[in-house]
Amino acid sequence: MGLRQVTAQEHDNVQMVQRIYAAFGRGDIPAILQALAPDVEWMMSGSAEIAFAGARQGREQVVECFTAIAQTVDVLHFEPQEFIAQGDTVVVLGVEQLRVKATGKVAENPWVMAFAFRNGQVVRFREFDDTGALAAAFRPGLKVT
What we know:
Blueprint: H1 8-26, H2 29-34, E1 36-44, E2 54-57, H3 59-72, E3 73-86, E4 89-100, E5 106-118, E6 121-128, H4 131-138
Parallel strand pairs: 1-6
Antiparallel strand pairs: 1-2, 3-4, 4-5, 5-6
């Protein structure tokens, strides 16, 4: 079984995801929004304790998500580690370290993010986290391990 060649479209999609991550690192939300389709489906896993978890639809609700992130956590470390592209989908494996502002607790969070593209824009985003570690960091009085 031979290695599959990455298509130009897959390469472009990976580069777009890398630009989105770079914009996130700069706090450049407008640049992120430009990469998203107007009707983007945006989902971040987790319980209601995690301020930014949940399903959202459209760019305006994505802004609400990034606002919740900025208001509730400090991103201490964010590292995409592996990019996997096939067709219109890019899956990224990575890790982050977040400090919850209200509790001061730090969560180590390995994550998987999946981006689906159409016509060069993200139409669907899914993030899967260590929701137990994140929820514990948001809860007062519980130790995060």
